[in-house]
Backbone:
């Protein structure tokens, strides 16, 4: 019975270390897009984000977060998303 408990404890530690290693392999990637209209700026930032993630050899994970502000000429949007190897 003691060896079973020790085995379960060892497996739990290995799973925790594995999850930590996987979480450490993710980074938040961001991109900025400008456009004359709000919709164009959103498209430019989200598509730019997808291109950057792909170029880094990572895969997107989770939702894309986008925020926009009025710029000098049109709108400027910033998009970010977690990307993992």
Residues:
């Amino acid at each position: 019975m003691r060896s079973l408990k020790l085995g379960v404890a060892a497996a739990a530690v290995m799973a925790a270390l594995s999850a930590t290693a996987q979480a450490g392999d993710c980074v938040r990637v961001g991109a900025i897009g400008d456009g004359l209209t709000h919709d164009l700026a959103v498209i430019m930032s989200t598509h730019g984000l997808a291109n950057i993630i792909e170029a880094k050899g990572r895969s997107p994970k989770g939702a894309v977060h986008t925020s926009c502000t009025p710029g000098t000429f049109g709108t400027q949007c910033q998009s970010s998303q977690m990307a993992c190897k």
